Amino acid sequence: MEWNAETLQFLSQCFLNTLSPYPEPRRAAESRLSEASDRPNYGLAVLRLVAEPSVDEPIRQAAAVNFKNHLRSRWSSSEEEPNAQPQTLAPDEKEQIKSRIVSLMLSSAPRIQSQLSEALGVIGKHDFPRRWPALLPELRLSLEKAGEGSDYATVNGVLSTVNSIFKNFRHQYDTKDVAIDLKYCIDNFAEALLMIFKRTAGLIDNIGVSGGQAAILRPLVESQRLCCRIFYSLNFLVLPECFEDHMGEWMGEFQKYLTVKFSVLEDGGGDGLALVDELRAAVCENISLYAERYEEEFRGYLSGFVETVWNLLVSVSASSGRDRLTVTAITFLTTVSTSVHHTLFSGDDILQQICERIVIPNVMLRDEDEELFEMNYVEFIRRDMEGSDLDTRRRIACELLKGIGSNYRERVTQIVSSQIQSSLALFSENPTANWKHKDCAIYLVVSLATRRAGGTSISTDLVDVESFFGAVIVPELRNQDVNGFPMLKAGALKFFTMFRDQISKPIAMALIPDVVRFLGSDSNVVHSYAASCIEKLLLVKDEGGKARYIAADISPFLLVLMTNLFGALGKPESEENPYVMKCIMRVLGVADISREVASPCITGLTSVLNKVCENPKTPTFNHYLFEAVAVLVRRSCEKDPSLISAFEASLFPSLEMILARDVTEFFPYAFQLLAQLVELHSPPISQNYMQIFEILLSPDSWKKSGNVPALVRLLQAFLQKAPHELNQEGRLAQVLGIFNKLVSSPSTDEQGFYVLNTIIENLGYDVIAPYMGHIWASLFSRLQNRRTVKFVKSFLIFMSLFLVKHGSQNLVDSMNTVQPNIFLVILEQFWIPNLRMITGSIELKLTSVASTRLICECQALLDPSVGTLWGKMLDSIVTLLSKPEQDRVEEEPDVPDFADNEGYGATFVHLYNAGKKEEDPLKDIRDPKQFLMASLANLSALSPGRYPQVISGNLDPTNQTALLQLCSSYNVAIV
Fold first, then answer.
1. Nearest-CA neighbor of 618 among 649, 657, 584, 574?
2. CB of 335 within 8 A of CB of 292?
3. Which of 5, 294, 630, 721 is the most exposed place for a label (fewest CB within 10 A)?
């Protein structure tokens, strides 16, 4: 793409149209840009547009965003990532971009500057420092010039860029190459970083934290924040000598920023206060890093920072909206509490103050917590119930208690227990006004509970669980007003869920109807927690792994439970509630499903399915939805086969809609459900299914790799249930075409063998014989050109299955038609050496029995001229049957072939409840060892004296011993 007036006009118009509020011009512009992006020098042309002052800023900003995204997908070099798609940029274009981007980024308006800074970070991730040695000197020079002229727009542009590049050191291991890169960065930038940090500190001191103009002070504070983040990155892996030498200068300023108040910025609240808090949070992260990793060098500064952070926390804890600073400050104290300096917290008065002045104020519910509870239940639950709340005040305050408790457990337990009782007493005085104190008490018990080592059981020393549950939790669960004080109800349900193992079955059973009632709460959090509580209760196991709650336990209220669960899905914003759907799935997996329950359930589930097909957007919910359908179909139809036709009538329109509307996200699920229905069906297969069969045979259906396992599963179901239809209208040839495509690629070859094995199992030899030459030729070609461990094992299992189904003679003859005597070559080079690699009970039995039949029945192996081959085969059989798996399998994992997935987006998601049952093709043989010994005894009796000699000459000594032991165990002799 040449840079000229025509290109300028084309790109300007396209980027202008991408800003259009109307979808048609926007999509057209996006399509044209997508096509243009494949042309050489497209990225460079967009960068030149960004630099064009005659173009309006919104257009240049849109171009900057496009440029950044273009680099993300195309910068990585083809040498590093040979299969990277789409095509990477040409070296010349890269060099031109690198020569222009720094100066342009520094001279751009703030919004464009931030996009170009990120783009520069993308380049740096791949090229810096080794392929871009000029970058850091250029940035340092720009920083020094801007610093001298107090040009803080440029200073912060440079620091922001350096921060995004150096950030990579926080996510890497301390390898030799990383150490070299880190040393380069420190040698070339640490001095400049300290210089600008001190210069900016001096400017702040001259302005005065209380006076001056906010507009002047704001960029200076931002500069110090960026310096702190760069400090963190450069110190993350090791303590550099230059930072150790200047530790006093850094720590002096850090201490200052934690103590002084920037009145001109903070008093107005809002952005100014947030900016200062971000600086303080960055300081807290730096001193936490030093306290944790460089304890000895940091020792002299520690007690001063503990006192400073303590005082800061006491004031911040009383304020709203300062969560990040609170969390980082408490994290620092927690780090110290678990270090050798924990004695700083040893005094009783200090422990009491920590609980009263830091922990309790941060655990008590705030207005923003209530707002999140009401307005964004998904985020509230993510933080509160799913353990992702380590960045919240409530959880981090409890982590501080846990940290101190690791050394002062009894005293912390005593103080917190006393606080819990005090909070409950305040609640009792005035439940309506003081309900948050009860919530605080429940939260402390739940958050400070510990998981017993090696198990799932939760314990606590703070309260007696049974009495606390009866006195504090049960009254909330028994409360008939499901909508009153919803946060208390949620806390009570969470407690019940967490301590479910310790609540006796009679007590829990008496309360389950109350929990079912809470499914009708208008609060999304409450009915989600109620659903989760029931779902988790049904997973409880007693000693011996026996389920505590069974179908009979939930039968009395099953109908109202299912009614309330589907009712919860009708609540606003819970239409795709994953906790409710997971509960539906779990209940259907446990309950005794009668026709009266099955009918409304399948109606409800298909109704939900039809709605989500319009716009699939919640993957977890969708997965549980399909699992619920699968488990309902499986358990209902196994019990009452007459329900199959009713389920087909309900499900078929939905599954057909998925295929007709091209809802690609649901294709793997739909194919697995169809496979389940086909497997449940008795032959002959109805015409509806045969129409699906035609879709299945279409090459277009197999283009996405995410569909392949589900399609194979469905194809196997058809092969099993409709073998006669398969051999009509050229379908078998189409199926073998699918097999051939699958088996040719290392990413899908295993799926190809599943298809082939099912054909071999379900069709007579007279039907498949005409195709065997092509099948063997395809397999031999792959064996010769792209052999992998996985392929060889699958090939061996296929040959074994062929033998037990169609006989050793057909196996030998059909292989030798491709090439004379190739059977013995395959036997010697692949079957014998790889037999010991087989794993899985069914696979082990199949291959050992097939191998036994080969040496005892196959004329090609009974010829005395191949006695050595016979002996080696027996040696492999004995190894397979006598040695444990870990002693015989030395498998190197195959390297995945990424090229085979080119252009495929979706990934396969297995439906557990629609799983295929593993079929044993040798049900009549129980013990493969007994089969081997009986077969050898019969064979040797026909030629006495021949086989002991072959055995002694070809079997490993340990296998000869193992064979003698087997003779003794099964009371047979090889004569």
1. 574
2. yes
3. 5
Q: Which long-range contacts does 733-739 make (Cβ < 8 Å, 24+ apart)?
A: 733/771, 734/697, 735/697, 735/759, 736/771, 736/774, 736/775, 738/697, 738/702, 739/775, 739/778
Structure tokens at 492: 């009570």
Please report, as a single letter, which amino acid is at residue 554. Answer: I
Residue 948: beta bridge partners? Answer: none
- The Cα 916–Cα 921 span in angstroms is 15
**Rounded Cα distance, 637 and 681, in Å:** 10
Query: What is the pTM for the complete model shown?
Result: 0.80
Closest CA to 247 of 287, 213, 281: 287
Both tokens assigned to 771 = 């195709």
Q: What residues does 458 pair with on adjacent strands?
A: 451
Q: How many CB atoms lie within 10 A of CB 375?
A: 11
Q: Pull the structure tokens for residue 398.
A: 């409890």
Burial class (CB in 10 A: 0-12, 13-18, 19+), 828: middle
CB of 847 closer than 8 Å to CB of 880: yes
SS3 459: strand
Amino acid (one-letter) located at 462: L
Q: What does the pLDDT read at residue 45?
A: 95
One-letter-per-residue 3-state SS of 848-875: HHHHHHHHHHCHHHHCHHHHHHHHHHHH
Helices (H), 236-269: 241-245, 247-259, 263-266
For residue range 632-674, what is the model confidence (pLDDT) as tens digits?
999 998 888 888 888 988 998 999 899 888 888 899 999 999 9
Q: 218-237 burial, b for 16+ CB within 10 Å, e for fewer?
A: bbbbbbbbbbbbbbbbbbbb
pLDDT of 547 reads: 93
- Residue whose C-alpha is closest to residue 66's, from 40, 48, 47, 90: 47
CB-CB contact of 354 with 397 (8 Å):
no
Print burial letters for 170-188: b (CB count within 10 Å at least 16), e (below 16): eeeeeeeeeeebbeebbeb
Q: Which residue is it, tokens 């045969």? A: 690
- Helices 619-639, 643-660: axis angle to 10 degrees equals 150
Residues facing residue 451 across a β-bridge = 458
pLDDT digits (tens, 9 = 90+) for 749-783: 999 999 999 999 888 999 999 999 999 999 999 99
The two structure tokens encoding residue 379: 């985020």
Whether the per-residue pLDDT at 96 is higher than 90: the answer is: yes
d(CA 418, CA 960): 72
Q: How confident is the model at residue 453 (pLDDT cuts 50, 70, 90)?
A: low
Return d(Cα 697, Cα 678) in angstroms, integer: 16
Q: Is 931 exposed, middle or buried (0-12, 13-18, 19+ CB in 10 A)?
A: buried
* Residues present in the chain in total: 975
Amino acid making up residue 655: L
State the DSSP string of 654-666.
HHHHHHHTT-GGG
Could you write out the DSSP letters of every residue in 890-901?
Answer: -PPPPPP-GGGG
Measure the CA–CA gap between 507 and 517, rounded to whole angstroms: 17
Token output for 149: 């002229």
Rounded to an integer, what distance in angstroms lies between the CA atom of residue 789 and that of residue 185? 44
**Which among 489, 473, 460, 316 is positioned nearest to 401, based on CA atoms?**
460
In the block, tokens 């690791």 appear at: 406
Contact 853, 803 (CB under 8 A): yes
CA distance 926 to 779: 31
- What per-residue string of b and e applies to 304-314 under the rule 16 or more CB within 10 Å gives b? ebbebbbebbe
The two tokens of residue 820 are 């004379």
Taking only Cα atoms into account, the Rg of the chain, rounded to an integer number of angstroms, comes to 35
